[in-house]
Specification:
With about 300 residues, this protein is α/β, with parallel strands linked by helices. It has two domains: about 140 residues, HAD superfamily/HAD-like (Rossmann fold, 3-Layer(aba) Sandwich), CATH 3.40.50.1000; about 120 residues, 3-Layer(aba) Sandwich (Rossmann fold), CATH 3.40.50. It has ten helices and 16 strands. The strands form five sheets. A five-stranded parallel sheet has the order 4-3-5-6-9, sandwiched between helices. Helix 8 links the parallel strand 10 and strand 11.
Length: about 300
């Protein structure tokens, strides 16, 4: 993404501590760190927090070390399970748990083995429930799509440890010793929702899954504290918008309604913030029961 490497580097230069948090359980921290470094963002394995790590941590608190764990995912996920002290297996015989992460090679037979284990009472842990996965070709079926196949087949639901659930957030905060964490991401349903649930601030960037229309229509509980076009938003002041009736102002920018059309003028970033504040204010006034005073304005 344009400006990503430079912005992360500049944020570090200004004293921010950084963790790279991923719902993807298919790659080990070493692989993720190497890939980030290739992209110009220096990273070491201890900078990376994955849902696979969170899943193994969850298992260690609930089943005996040395138990058989059926791995529905990549060899990297299996290696993480093994390093956690468990025996990674691929069949349903005598397993205490099933761990599921995205693997494009997952077959019907793999799902069938997991289904047998889950129906027999195995603890079921999913790295994430993301319905889609971003790729250069567009959005593809994510781990959540395969999770849903097993929900349909078994009538059970997994424990999800990735965003927006608290396990991964807790591990990330501990990793960097954060006192005031800022969750940065491009998804309302994982990054922002997870931040809200954890009581943390969030910065939504429009370089990925969420588009402007989805942002303006964000429901209470999934509204970011800050918004920016890209990661340069880490390095700029975010002016707090004010709403007066059917208009909102943010610095020199303005947003207003002309009937049902939401119009803006002024600098693009501030105009977007004004538009969000106005759209959310109208939505809350339309449904007062859904109003959230803590997130009333876009700070």
């Amino acid at each position: 993404m344009p400006h990503a490497a430079d912005s992360v580097g500049a944020a570090r230069d200004r004293g921010m501590r950084v963790a790279f948090v991923t719902n993807n359980a298919s790659r080990r921290p070493q692989v993720v760190a190497e890939h980030l470094t290739e992209l110009g963002i220096h990273a070491v394995p201890t900078d990376v927090v994955t849902s696979a790590q969170a899943a193994v941590g969850y298992l260690r608190d609930r089943i005996p070390v040395g138990s058989n764990v059926l791995v529905l995912g990549t060899q990297d996920l299996a290696a993480e399970v093994t390093e956690g002290g468990f025996v990674a297996v691929r069949t349903a015989d005598a397993v205490a748990a099933v761990v599921q992460g995205l693997d494009p090679s997952t077959s019907w037979r793999d799902l069938a083995e997991a289904s047998v284990a889950i129906r027999a009472g195995a603890l079921w842990v999913a790295g994430n429930a993301d319905s889609t996965y971003p790729s250069p070709r567009g959005l593809l079926p994510g781990n959540g799509a395969l999770v849903q196949a097993l929900v349909t087949a078994t009538g059970r639901r997994p424990v999800v440890v990735g965003k927006p659930e608290p396990e991964l957030h807790r591990a990330s905060v501990e990793r960097v010793g954060a006192r005031r964490p800022l969750i940065v991401g491009d998804r309302l349903d994982t990054d922002v929702l997870g931040a809200v649930r954890a009581g943390a601030d969030s910065l939504l960037v429009l370089t990925g899954v969420t588009d402007r229309a989805q942002l303006l229509g964000a429901p209470v509980g999934s509204r970011p504290t800050y918004v920016a076009q890209d990661l340069r938003g880490l390095l700029t002041a975010h002016i707090e918008p004010t709403v007066h009736g059917e208009q909102a102002h943010c610095g020199e920018a303005r947003a207003w309604y002309d009937g049902d059309d939401l119009l803006t003028s002024g600098p693009e970033a501030d105009a977007l913030r004004a538009a969000c504040a106005l759209a959310w204010d109208r939505a809350d006034r339309t449904d007062p029961a859904a109003r959230d005073p803590a997130r009333e304005d876009l700070a």
